[in-house]
Design goal:
It comes from Podospora aff. communis PSN243. InterPro entries: Kinase-like_dom_sf (IPR011009). This is Protein kinase domain-containing protein. The chain has eight helices and 13 strands. By secondary structure, it is α+β, with helices and mostly antiparallel strands. α3 runs antiparallel to α4 (about 230-260), α3 packs antiparallel against α6 and α5 (about 270-285) packs antiparallel against α6. The chain starts with about 20 loop residues before the first strand and ends in a 60-residue tail after the last strand.
């Protein structure tokens, strides 16, 4: 494997995995399709899902691994009391949109593209509890968008977004909305299009600005419209639901902050154009009366504003502004560095490895199923892939007063906490065909 995928281990490939002997340990995952991955870092820890940055051993690239904290007590294909979809509704809808997007690109070149996050794989991974019960975790693997969420970088921080950046986000997210609402036989609504679900991604060192992708499709739904009512107006009424949430975020967390906190020049014509653009977007979402919603005009004006902001012949422009230089010299560098992050490892015995901590002593929540492996990764290719699921939902491993039980892991399932087991029934899903 590549040097980027993991640290070099001085201990060689003959290390023992006994409880007492110290050796370098990595936290490994294996997907249902055979992907071999190593844990890199935590990305997010929500109420129902955890996101982890992982390194694909074979492709030598970082991915995002999302895993549900609560586990299913039946495989979705074998449920008796409820109907489970083989793939969660949001992922199924996204996969269908990606297919439509690819077909649309081949058939008709467009002036702007939909930017949809990429899901590579979804699995229900099997585990066995210490009581011998079989449970399943819902796990998905996604492209890593190196810039993170828009609101995590700007909302509530001292970093100031540039006018060009906001204009670019507007036209790229609106382009995605426009495609979602028109591509298929029935419109698709994202239903959670706030700024915390807008990802930024830098393509490389030469990029002047990041691209913006709409993510977190858990709430996405296909809007079924009766044939007698499937007019253009009815189709577009569903577009307003996404537009409203997005425009409110732009107004509350971007424009108002730029007016009051960052205080751009009141005579800056570029900021005046951005204000007018956002007012138009807000009026469009609030004043809908059943007519046709046309986004192409706003998209073109936002594209024009972005170009003017960075045009060296335009005065004023943002090319030498403090906000733009910080964006290019600091945020872009940090984003591109995440693509080269190597796998996390620790040196210690097996027992210590079951309760991972970072270099500062803080607890790591490596939601499973995962396995401890040596530097040669031989265990990943073995017939038995013994998995753990520590820490589990509801346990605070960072509490200094809590001492994990010293127990043998010879059974291979002692790391699964039964308090995290829940029987989950999912409603019947309507997935586009």
């Amino acid at each position: 494997m590549s040097d980027q995928a993991m640290h070099d281990s001085p201990s060689g490939s003959s290390e023992s995995t006994s409880n007492g002997e110290e050796h370098e340990c990595f936290y490994a995952f294996r997907s249902g399709q055979g992907r071999r991955m190593l844990f890199v870092s935590e990305l997010g820890d929500g109420l129902s899902n955890a996101a982890q940055l992982v390194r694909d051993v074979d492709e030598d690239v970082n991915l995002v691994r999302r895993v549900t904290k609560r586990r299913l007590i039946r495989h979705p294909d074998n449920a008796k009391k409820a109907l489970y979809p083989r793939t969660p509704q949001g992922i199924a809808i996204l996969m269908k949109l990606l297919e439509l997007d690819e077909a649309d690109r081949r058939n008709s070149p467009r002036n702007y593209d939909a930017r949809l996050t990429r899901c590579y794989e979804h699995d229900y991974l099997k585990q066995t509890t210490r009581r011998g019960k079989t449970v399943y975790s819902s796990v998905s693997y996604w492209k890593h968008y190196n810039g993170g969420f828009f609101d995590s970088k700007f909302v509530g921080t001292q970093a100031q977004p540039t006018i060009a950046l906001v204009a670019r986000m507007i036209w790229q997210v609106l382009s995605t909305f426009d495609f979602m609402h028109r591509a298929g036989p029935e419109p698709i609504a994202h239903m959670d299009a706030h700024l915390g679900n807008v990802f930024m991604h830098w393509d490389g060192k030469s990029a002047r600005l990041p691209d913006f992708y709409l993510g977190d499709w858990d709430n996405a739904t296909q809007i079924s419209i009766p044939a007698a009512q499937s007019s253009r107006a009815n189709r577009n009424s569903n577009a307003v639901k996404d537009l409203s949430l997005f425009s409110n975020g732009i107004r509350d967390h971007v424009i108002n902050l730029m007016r009051t906190v960052w205080m751009p020049s009141p005579y800056n014509p570029l900021f005046f154009q951005l204000e007018k653009l956002c007012e138009e977007l807000e009026n469009l979402s609030q004043g809908y009366t059943g007519g046709h919603v046309e986004l192409s005009g706003i998209i073109r004006r936002a594209q024009s504003l972005e170009r003017n902001c960075l045009n060296p012949l335009t005065f004023p422009n943002e090319r030498q502004s403090t906000a733009y230089l910080h964006l290019i010299n600091t945020m872009k560098t940090e984003a591109l560095a995440t693509e080269k992050q190597v796998a996390f490892s620790l040196v210690g015995n097996l027992k210590a490895g079951l309760y991972p901590r970072d270099e500062y002593g803080g607890a790591l929540r490596i939601y499973g199923p995962w396995q401890l492996v040596d530097s040669n990764l031989a265990q990943l290719d073995g017939p038995e892939f013994k998995t753990h699921n520590r820490p589990c939902e509801g346990l605070d491993w960072g509490d200094s007063d809590y001492h994990p039980p010293e127990e043998s892991d010879s059974s291979g399932d002692a790391g699964v906490d039964n308090r995290a087991e829940q029987e989950i029934y999912l409603p019947e899903m309507d997935v586009p065909h």
